[in-house]
């Protein structure tokens, strides 16, 4: 008895079998891997596929790149085409915001998304090849280059490059980031340019100083994470001797002219400055002193601050004091303690008086200065050294008061009558300082 299964199913002609397999998308004899990797995009010609990409946001394209290695390769090819470059490499850097787009985002956010796209597309490539590909993609954008923009102060190009680079390298290990820095350093020929500005007369290459400042701040130091900023700032400074490190730090973070953006070298020498002019330097010093900057010791940072105070010439002591206050308690105490340990009591006392003056002018609590003096007094190894410092402190107050009084009596006045104001502030500062000492002394005596 024959099987009913064979007789109940009519035979299907081979020609129809071939047609049905073509309709279902399974072509005999062809590798099925491209189909599974491209999915429905398999049926589209490459030109149509690229046209579809023009309707997707950069974030959507970035998500699409993670679907498969095959699609990622197609996206890499698309980015390299002229149409892909026009679509993705926006160059409207001289307007703060983009025209209305589907993302509705600024040009900075656009390049942040582009950084993520290229990060995902090049995920499987070695670091060197990733950098070469990224450079090839971005090389046509002139505003990404150190000397590429004719109006760098009004350009977002370097900032866009910075956020792009920040996203691209996020999560990379330190060795890879070293390679990124070396790649950029060589690409921009920064070693020779930095050598020019740190060895020449301050201000003799003003345009180059400005370009280096904008490139370092916009591209390398644009991140929000302290660890990243400490890493990049260390890479910028460490190759140079201490004297050049101080000069370079001033170029990158020092005060600049509001008119043309050039570094103002005489700001710390000609007269007392304000907190705004010193904040950038103070923040950089705090960054190097923090736990994130592993390659810097406390002695390194103190030496750098000491060297900074004579760039390009010796600063006014008031500006030194204001920088220390802005740099924070730890750095301030370490700096003062180093002078106490090295037997520089007269210089220490004078600096302490100016710190008291800055507390008065900038409305800091005077008890901070008294407590700082107490901590410094504990550094001295003998009572004689401590008493000698206190005597030097009172002598410094008296000498400064006499100098300022003499200036007032001599009629040395300017438009702001600064000599009289300085005398007024110093007298108030001395009174407030000694008042806090009396409060502390009377408080301790009453409790005993």
Summarize the structure in words.
The protein has 448 residues and is mainly α. The protein folds into 3 domains: 45-93 and 106-188, no CATH class; 198-327, no CATH class; 342-443, Methane Monooxygenase Hydroxylase, Chain G, domain 1 (Up-down Bundle). Helices cover 67% and strands 0% of the residues. The chain has 24 helices and no strands. The chain has helices at residues 4-8, 14-23, 33-38, 46-53, 58-64, 69-80, 82-88, 107-121, 127-138, 157-169, 174-187, 190-199, 206-220, 226-237, 242-253, 267-270, 275-289, 298-308, 317-327, 329-341, 345-361, 366-377, 383-409, 418-447. Helix 17 packs across helix 19 (317-327), helix 19 (317-327) crosses helix 21 and helix 20 (329-341) packs parallel to helix 22. The longest helix has 30 residues, at 418-447. It starts with a helix and ends with a helix. 31% of the residues are buried.
Briefly summarize what is shown:
The protein is mainly alpha-helical and 448 residues long. It is built from 24 helices and no strands.
Write the layout of secondary structure elements.
Blueprint: H1 4-8, H2 14-23, H3 33-38, H4 46-53, H5 58-64, H6 69-80, H7 82-88, H8 107-121, H9 127-138, H10 157-169, H11 174-187, H12 190-199, H13 206-220, H14 226-237, H15 242-253, H16 267-270, H17 275-289, H18 298-308, H19 317-327, H20 329-341, H21 345-361, H22 366-377, H23 383-409, H24 418-447
Helix pairs in contact: 5-8, 8-10, 10-13, 12-15, 15-18, 17-19, 18-20, 19-21, 20-22, 21-23, 21-24, 22-24, 23-24
């Amino acid at each position: 008895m024959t099987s009913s299964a064979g007789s109940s199913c009519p035979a299907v002609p081979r020609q129809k079998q071939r047609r049905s397999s073509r309709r279902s998308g399974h072509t005999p004899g062809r590798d099925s891997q491209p189909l599974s990797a491209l999915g429905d995009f398999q049926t589209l010609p490459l030109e149509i596929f690229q046209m579809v990409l023009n309707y997707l946001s950069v974030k959507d394209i970035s998500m699409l790149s993670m679907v498969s290695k095959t699609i990622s390769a197609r996206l890499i090819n698309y980015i390299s085409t002229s149409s892909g470059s026009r679509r993705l490499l926006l160059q409207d850097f001289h307007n703060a915001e983009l025209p209305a787009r589907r993302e509705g985002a600024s040009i900075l956010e656009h390049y942040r998304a582009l950084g993520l796209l290229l990060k995902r597309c090049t995920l499987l490539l070695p670091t060197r090849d990733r950098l070469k590909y990224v450079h090839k993609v971005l090389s046509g954008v002139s505003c990404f280059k150190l000397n590429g923009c004719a109006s760098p102060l009004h350009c977002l190009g370097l900032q866009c490059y910075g956020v792009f680079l920040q996203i691209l390298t996020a999560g990379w290990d330190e060795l890879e980031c070293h390679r990124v820095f070396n790649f950029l350093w060589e690409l921009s020929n920064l070693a020779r340019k930095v050598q020019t500005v740190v060895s020449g007369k301050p201000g003799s290459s003003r345009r180059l100083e400005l370009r280096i400042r904008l490139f370092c701040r916009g591209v390398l130091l644009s991140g929000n994470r302290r660890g990243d900023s400490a890493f990049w700032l260390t890479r910028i400074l460490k190759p140079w001797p201490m004297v050049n490190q101080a000069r370079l730090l001033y170029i990158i973070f020092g005060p600049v002219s509001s008119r043309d953006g050039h570094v103002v070298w005489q700001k710390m020498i000609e007269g007392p400055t304000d907190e705004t002019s010193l904040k950038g330097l103070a923040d950089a010093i705090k960054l190097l002193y923090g736990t994130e900057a592993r390659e810097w010791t406390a002695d390194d940072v103190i030496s750098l601050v000491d060297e900074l105070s004579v760039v390009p010439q010796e600063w006014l002591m008031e500006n030194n004091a204001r920088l220390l206050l802005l740099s924070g308690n730890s750095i301030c105490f370490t700096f003062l303690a180093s002078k106490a340990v090295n037997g520089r009591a007269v210089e220490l006392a004078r600096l302490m008086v100016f710190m008291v003056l800055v507390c008065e002018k900038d409305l800091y609590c005077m008890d901070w200065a008294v407590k700082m003096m107490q901590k410094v007094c504990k550094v001295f190894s003998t009572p004689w050294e401590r008493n000698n410092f206190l005597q030097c402190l009172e002598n410094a107050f008296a000498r400064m008061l006499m100098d300022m009084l003499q200036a007032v009596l001599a009629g040395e006045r300017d438009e702001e009558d600064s000599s009289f104001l300085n005398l007024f502030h110093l007298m108030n500062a001395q009174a407030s300082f000694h008042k806090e000492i009396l409060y502390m002394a009377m408080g301790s005596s009453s409790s005993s």
